[in-house]
Each structure stands twice: as C-alpha cells, then as structure tokens.
C-alpha cells in the first residue's frame, strides 16, 4: 500500500524542517526506510494495494514565507531544499537538447572555448575515432591555454569508473595517458573503484562481470560555468545513434561550482591515474579495496556530504542576502552596479545517490514525488533498463497518478546481440516487463498505468528520467534528468546524480513537453499481444535465473 511509504517520507520531511538537524533527519529516514521495507516484505502483493489511493494519508505541504524566489506555483516542491542546495535561475539559461549529434557537437564546441575548467564525469571513455576527436579537442585547448598571449589556467578533471575504464588492452586509461603525460600539472584522471569489490571476490570475478558489483555512473560535463547533465557516456554510439536525454545549463556559475566540487570529492576517494598507467590513492585517503571498508565509506560519506552541506549553506545565505536583507544593497543599487540578474523562474536541485556511502537523497526525493503525485496528475517515466525497485513499483501501482512508462524494446536494448550470457539480458528484461504488466492487469490498473516500448531502426535506447504534469495541466512543471535508471543498481550499488528541474516558465515547460513527446512518438503501447510476438518467448533458464541476477543489471 502507499500508506507505509508515505509515513516514512512524512517523518523525513518534518524532521528536515528543523534547522541544523540534517544528520538526525537522515538517520530517521534510514530507520523508517528499514521499517517500511520490513512491512513491505510482510505484505508483498496484498490485494489491499487496490485501496492504497483511498487509505494513504495526504502529506501536508511544506510551506515557506512568500517571497519573490518562492512563488506560490512551486511551493509543493520546495521541501527538496531541506535536503540539497536550491539554485534559482532564469529559464533562458536552460536548453533541452534532443539528439546525440547535438550533444557531441556542443561538447566539442564548449571544450574549444573553455578558459578555466573542463570537468567530465562518465562511466567510461570509448576508444574509437569520435572519442579520440574529443581527446584531441582537450589537448588542443590545453596547448592553446599555454601558448596564448595571455595564458589561461585551464585545468581538466576527468572521473571514470575503474573497472569499466580498465576493460581490455585499449581502454579509457590508454586513451587519456597522452594527456596526462603531456600536461601532468593540468590534467587529473580519477578512477572510482567500488569498495564492495574486494578480497576473494575481486580475484575471482572476471573482467566485465566485475562491473556488476558497483560503478561510478554519474554523467556530468562541465565547461567553465556551463553544465551538461545527461545519462549519456563518452562513447561513439552516444554521439551517433544511442538515444538519451541532455540538458544544457548556460552561465550557471553556482551550479557549475557545485558539480565541480562533487566530482572533486568523488575523485578524492578514487584511484588517481599516473603517467605510467599505474594508480595511486590520494595522500591520507583509505584505499577503496585494500583498506578498511567501513573507514573508507565513512570518509567518502563525509567528503561528499561536506560538498552538499556547504553548497546548501551558501545558497541559503545568497537567498537571504538577495531577498530578505535590508542591510545590503537594494536591487536598484545592485542593478546600477551591473549585478542585476533576471528574476528566477526555474529551480535546480541536484539529487545524489551513493548507497555504498549511505547517501540516499535521490531515492528519498523520487519516492516522495511518486507518493505525492495526486489524482489527475500524469507521470511520464522512462528508463533504458526496466527493472524498477520494489519500492518504486509499489508506489506506481498503489498511488493515484496516471503513469506512462517508456522502456526499450528488446531490439533497441543496449545488450541486444551481445555475445555470451550478456546476450540473454534483453530476454530477462522482457520477462521482468511481462511480470509487471501481468500485475498491472491483475490489479485492474491498465487505464492508469501504461507501458510503451521505444523502437527506432538502427538505434538503441538509453533515456532515463521523468516528467511530472500536475492535474489539469498540459505541460510539465518538473523533470528529473541524469544518470539513475530507477532500478536496484541505481539505488543500491552505483554512484548516481541527476537534477530536478522545477519551472514556472511556459517556454521551458514547452521544451520539456516537446522532448517527452518526441521520445514517446517512437513507441508502441504494450498489450498482452506484445508478448506473443516472435522473439518475445523467454527461455526457461532465463526465467529461472532472472530473479537471482536482476539486482546486478
């Protein structure tokens, strides 16, 4: 039922309102999550789920004193700023991209004009000619920064996953070594290694399969004060024919500073690539797989949470100084001094999920959004890998809003046609999809919860996120965009980051609506006939193995 899910969320939010108590809020949140999960296991698939919309209590709105940064229209989402920093921006600084080619060309263009910093976090960097083109752009910009009439202090920081970035003889590391060797003082390459892959497990699990234990999955691309948030990796298919989502935040210094600090923090707890292709830990840091696991995770938690807390404090102070202080310059004086910014009509909230480090912000916010979506609201949710956690699944099935869930058809799944065991992964997703669809039907929810499969000849599908349309609205007021897939891996194993964009700008809402429509237009509605099509028959061994391995992909 939705009621047990709403209770823990309500406690977390109430406690989050108490100033100076974020640690206590997080602790109570974790305790209530565990309590909720134990209740969930006991009831599992109860027929009472049908009554969830009637039984779940309404969570009171968290309100704030009205001010020009807090317009009435976005009050319902301002509770998020009790967990993370809130960045108010003008919608004119936000642009939604639509294609891999646009994403690739924008990145190259931004690298070429960067003067101060380039920060790139991804799962891996591919080894083909397009990836080499990207590396060449970095090299050219670094070279130009040294030879310019007025040399700039351009620094490049790249964060990748250790296991994925080390796969094969030619890999992400070998692609970046020339940069490290030529510009050792200006280039940093950090390789995150999950603390859960250690000891005998690390010795026994072969390459590629070791990536199932946990990864660095954040995708952030940053150039001076411009930021791209996406789910796309730095690989040729993501530049050509692998559909994802991308948002470009232009001239957003505070957001760029936050993500620079976040990548630096994860980089500090990662292994540092050296010019001879060896790796070292940062001085004073616990080794991720040789050192004490608990000590490493505590240090990583502190390092990341310090970034979140300090950014949140900075934004609160900026908010107070700008909108609630009589002792500082008036807005007219600030305008005369050339410091007048457009009034914000859009709010950005960075949502971080790093369960190995006991950081669960994205999970808390996503669960709350799904819990509070009221009757008449529409949620468009998309994932390249349909494997929802039990908590998300129960909220979709047990709450009031309408859902349209977009997922990859087997032919556009990234694992389609793969060799060996990986080739069976699309069939496993079909099995999970069919189980979920059967449950929707058994609960009589077909009119409220609809599955749609994306298909495009010659393409694969990797888009993830959601769009929220309030009751009676034809445009979305909120979207989540970034790296999480809403599955077990995203919640429990990997390092993830996305942003919640809340906007009252009709122009930006139309951009988001058009993005959603373009993706869903290439899809077909799933019915019982879908699973009778040729190629949809799942082998018995796949059905038997899927429950055992679904938490690893």
From TrEMBL:
GO molecular function annotation: ATP binding; CDP-diacylglycerol-glycerol-3-phosphate 3-phosphatidyltransferase activity; hydrolase activity, acting on ester bonds
Endoplasmic reticulum is among the record's keywords: no
Pathway connected to this protein: Phospholipid metabolism; phosphatidylglycerol biosynthesis; phosphatidylglycerol from CDP-diacylglycerol: step 1/2; Lipid metabolism
Places the protein is found: Mitochondrion
Occurrences of domain PLD phosphodiesterase (ranges): 212-238
Reactions catalysed according to its record: a CDP-1,2-diacyl-sn-glycerol + sn-glycerol 3-phosphate = a 1,2-diacyl-sn-glycero-3-phospho-(1'-sn-glycero-3'-phosphate) + CMP + H(+)
Name this protein carries in UniProt: CDP-diacylglycerol--glycerol-3-phosphate 3-phosphatidyltransferase
Organism: Mus caroli
Species classification: Eukaryota, Metazoa, Chordata, Craniata, Vertebrata
Keyword entries, A-Z: ATP-binding, Lipid biosynthesis, Lipid metabolism, Mitochondrion, Nucleotide-binding, Phospholipid biosynthesis, Phospholipid metabolism, Phosphoprotein, Repeat, Transferase, Transit peptide
Predominant location: mitochondrion
Gene name linked to the record: Pgs1
Similarity comment: Belongs to the CDP-alcohol phosphatidyltransferase class-II family.
């Amino acid at each position: 039922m939705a009621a047990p899910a709403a209770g823990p969320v309500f406690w977390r939010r109430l406690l989050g309102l108490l100033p100076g108590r974020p640690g206590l809020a997080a602790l109570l949140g974790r305790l209530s999550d565990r309590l909720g999960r134990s209740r969930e296991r006991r009831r599992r698939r109860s027929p009472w789920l049908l009554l969830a919309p009637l039984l779940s209590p309404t969570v009171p709105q968290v309100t704030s004193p009205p001010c020009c940064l807090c317009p009435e229209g976005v009050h319902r989402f301002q509770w998020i700023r009790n967990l993370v920093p809130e960045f108010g921006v003008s919608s004119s600084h936000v642009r939604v991209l639509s294609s891999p080619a646009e994403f690739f060309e924008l990145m190259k263009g931004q690298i070429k004009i960067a003067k101060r910093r380039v920060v790139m976090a991804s799962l891996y960097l591919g080894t083909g000619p397009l990836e080499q083109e990207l590396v060449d752009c970095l090299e050219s910009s670094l070279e130009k920064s040294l030879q310019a009439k007025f040399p700039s202090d351009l620094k490049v920081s790249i964060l990748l996953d250790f296991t994925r970035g080390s796969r094969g003889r030619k890999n992400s590391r070998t692609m970046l070594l020339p940069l490290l060797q030529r510009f050792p003082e200006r280039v940093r390459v950090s390789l995150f290694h999950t603390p859960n892959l250690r000891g005998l497990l690390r010795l026994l699990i072969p390459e590629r399969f070791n990536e199932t234990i946990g990864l660095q999955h954040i995708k952030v691309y940053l150039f001076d004060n411009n930021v791209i948030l996406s789910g796309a990796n730095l690989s040729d298919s993501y530049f050509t024919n692998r559909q994802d989502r991308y948002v470009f935040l232009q001239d957003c210094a505070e957001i760029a500073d936050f993500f620079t600090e976040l990548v630096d923090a994860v980089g500090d707890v990662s292994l540092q690539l050296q010019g001879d292709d060896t790796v070292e830990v940062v001085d004073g840091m616990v080794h991720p797989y040789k050192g004490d696991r608990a000590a490493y995770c505590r240090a990583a938690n502190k390092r990341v949470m310090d970034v979140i807390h300090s950014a949140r404090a900075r934004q609160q102070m900026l908010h107070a100084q700008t909108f609630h202080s009589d002792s500082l310059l008036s807005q007219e004086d600030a305008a005369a001094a050339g410091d007048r910014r457009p009034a914000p009509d859009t709010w950005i909230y960075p949502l971080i999920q790093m369960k190995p480090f006991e950081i669960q912000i994205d999970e808390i916010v996503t669960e709350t959004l799904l819990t509070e979506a009221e009757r008449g609201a529409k949620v468009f949710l998309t994932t390249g890998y349909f494997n929802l956690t039990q908590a998300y699944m129960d909220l979709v099935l047990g709450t009031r809003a309408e859902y349209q869930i977009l997922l990859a058809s087997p032919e556009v799944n990234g694992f389609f046609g793969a060799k060996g065991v990986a080739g069976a992964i699309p069939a496993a997703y079909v099995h999970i999809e069919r189980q979920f669809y059967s449950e929707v039907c058994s609960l009589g929810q077909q009119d409220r919860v609809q599955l749609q499969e994306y298909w495009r000849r010659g393409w694969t599908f990797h888009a993830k996120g959601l769009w929220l349309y309030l009751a009676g609205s034809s445009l979305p007021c909120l979207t989540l965009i970034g790296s999480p897939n809403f599955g077990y891996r995203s919640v429990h194993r990997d390092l993830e980051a996305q942003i919640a964009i809340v906007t009252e700008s009709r122009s930006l809402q139309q951009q988001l609506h058009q993005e959603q429509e373009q993706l869903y237009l290439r899809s077909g509605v799933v019915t019982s006939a879908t699973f009778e099509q040729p190629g949809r028959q799942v082998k018995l061994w796949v059905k038997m193995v899927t429950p055992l391995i679904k938490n690893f992909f």
